[in-house]
Amino acid sequence: MPVNADGRLVGDRRNAADKGRSHLLIGAAFLLADVASAATPANAQSSVPLPPVSVDQPTQKRKPAAAAAKPAQRTQAAAAARQRSRNAQPAPPTPSERAAASAAVLNEAKLHYRAMPSSTTLRSGASPLDTSQTVNVVPEQVLKDQLPRNLDDALANVSGVTQANTLAGTQDAVMRRGFGDNRDGSIMRNGMPLVQGRSLDAAVESVEVLKGPASLLYGIMDPGGIVNTISKRPELYQHGSVTLLGSTYANSRTGADGTIDITGPIGDRGLAYRFIGYGVSEDYWRNFGRHREMLVAPSLAWYGENTTIQLNYEHREFITPFDRGTAFDPATKAPLAIPATRRLDEPFNNMWGTSDLMQASVEHRLNQDWKLFAAYSYNTETFSANQLRITGVNAKTGVETRSNDGTWGSLSNASYGTSYLQGNVWLGDMRNEVLFGGDGQYRTIYRDDLIRQATPSFNFYNPVYGLITPGTTVSAADSAQTDKLGQWSLFFQDTLHLTGRFALVGGVRYMDYDQLAGKGRPFITNTNVSADKVLPLGGAIFKLTNQVSLYASYTQSLKPTSSIAPLTGGVVIGSNIAPEEGTQWETGVKFDFNKRISGTLALYDIDKKNVLVSQLNPTTGIVEYRTAGKVRSRGVELDVTGSLTDNWSMIGSYGYTDARVTEDPTLAGKQLQNVALNTASLYLVYDFGTTLPGRLRLGGGARYVGDRPGDAANSFVLPAYTVADLFATYETKVQSFPVIYQFNVKNLFDTVYYPSANSILTVAMGDARRFSLSATVKF
């Protein structure tokens, strides 16, 4: 007969209690699996308290009859004990046990590349099938398996993304649907803007890309979209891990790094902590340079019945090579005939600095239909850099002219706050999913002292390094570079569900903004803009089935046309110069089959006007900017991620991006710089499951980027490339501790490739082949 699952009077008391607790956890795991399969991907990450769990205990075996000679009182005591056992209530699982069971369900889904978008990207917890915009996800397990070196490496898994000018490998810079640059305000952490150069670190769990104009939700932005990095959050059960990794390139270029990640509850009232620490010291893969970095990232969270509070902080210190890459021969347009490892600058070409990020958020459920969200973020980064800037090369003689430049006292910061209400309003039988709120941002980019100093020429065929020291001559006319941007906005969006399968989306943002930019001592203002703008959004969603939906949308973007330095001819950008404005039409199909494999097929058309383009001035050796009139980007994108079978998982993409200038006196018809017509990627993983003593997973794949113009004039072309990677992980136990060994090979065939260019004299080089071996101990 079923009894309550306390188990305290069955056989040995301690063993029975342990078995009863095990039954509870097993029951919780099965219940959570049902909850997870019914929940949307966005809701799968929520902290909603789990329902109570009860488990039926197997019927107890009948004991042999007692001897007739036993005292009556002993028989009565046994009967009373049995009665108390029948009446006892099951011991409910603790919050820590519930969290552990929930994590077990989610971790298995993550292991199979399940894409679970964060609610911070689209400001809602709606399923991707119920939205009219495209969000592509690089899941947590993909980052663990591939070990990307930086954000643009991680985004090789996403369609239509290529690398832009990374400022000598020190800044995140990705082109999305043909648009983007470093410091363009498009890189986010938990839906709030960053200014730090490199945003992918040990505190990041996953990466998401909102494609197309995102100004309705994010204000001033390029029409390519935003990249949202999602933080690892505190969890309500105690666990942690320590990882040690060793790596090597060719020519004895080695390195090591370590990560510690600990999380758990504080007390039993929903408070949790997390601490992440990371350190790395590694040789640069070229002939000199070393990268060292340290990250400390504590965080706190409180998960209440209706309220969730998140607090996180990151402090990062770094020194990294400032490497502009190589140059192409201006005559033949081919790469210089020198080894890929040979640098054209000096060993003192480095950037060093610190960054700090502080974020806080509160989500409070007012009732069954409405919730309130408020968040604040402050990010600051300081750095200095030495740079031997290449001003000319002669491929016949090997003579290279350089300028001994540098930047001292760079300071960037972004302060951002947002608050919004999200909920449902019913009009008869029609549900309105409403989002209403506002945000404000103030961002500053400042460069204190700019170094400009002449230096002797250099022969790259027979290089002799170390004959010069870093420059010290401050150029007053180039110093005090300043770019200040402030914006304040209100936004509203409504998804009107006309039927169970058809919905219309409408939204509007009112935005007021100011921007000031210039340089020099005395300071010369080159941009001074103050304006406002109304930006609309429209869309439609039609769900063919519960697993497939069609969508269409119209979106706009706005970005003030600004410049720190005067444009060609000394033009000053003022309020009379219109901002860059983008409009996009998009349609496509989204699918999510059996909560296993999901993806998007999208077709889009973007038009943008008042665009700045860059071009190298061969006389001065300086890259100059000017307006290009109108450009457009049209394309098709396919992104798929998830599990094909119980053993096979995959993430793949294909992007066709036709981005070119449509109106300009000299550039009409030219392709946009660093934008490839074709990109593709495919990564497959096979999980051997429990067929071996431990758990073995093998994976590998490749990414392809077609040829792309290296400058606005299309005067030279960066050749197409394919780069292959592979990995293997083996999970076992060592003295009862789970241990994961992982082996990675990046750039398996040691391909020499050029991911981006700023000009023909500054062409970035992709990393050489890299081997790494790591061990992770979980506890």
UniProtKB/TrEMBL annotation:
Residues 301-748 form the TonB-dependent receptor-like beta-barrel domain. Gene3D superfamilies: TonB-dependent receptor, beta-barrel domain, TonB-dependent receptor, plug domain. Keywords: Cell outer membrane, Membrane, Receptor, TonB box, Transmembrane, Transmembrane beta strand, Transport. The keyword DNA repair does not apply. The keyword DNA repair does not apply. Residues 65-89 have a biased composition (Low complexity). It is a multi-pass membrane protein. Signal peptide: none annotated. It is found in: Cell outer membrane. Pfam families: Plug, TonB_dep_Rec_b-barrel. Residues 42-102 are annotated as: Disordered. Residues 129-226 form the TonB-dependent receptor plug domain. Its main location: membrane. Belongs to the TonB-dependent receptor family. PANTHER family: BLL7968 PROTEIN, FERRICHROME IRON RECEPTOR-RELATED. NCBIfam families: TonB-siderophor. This is Iron complex outermembrane receptor protein.
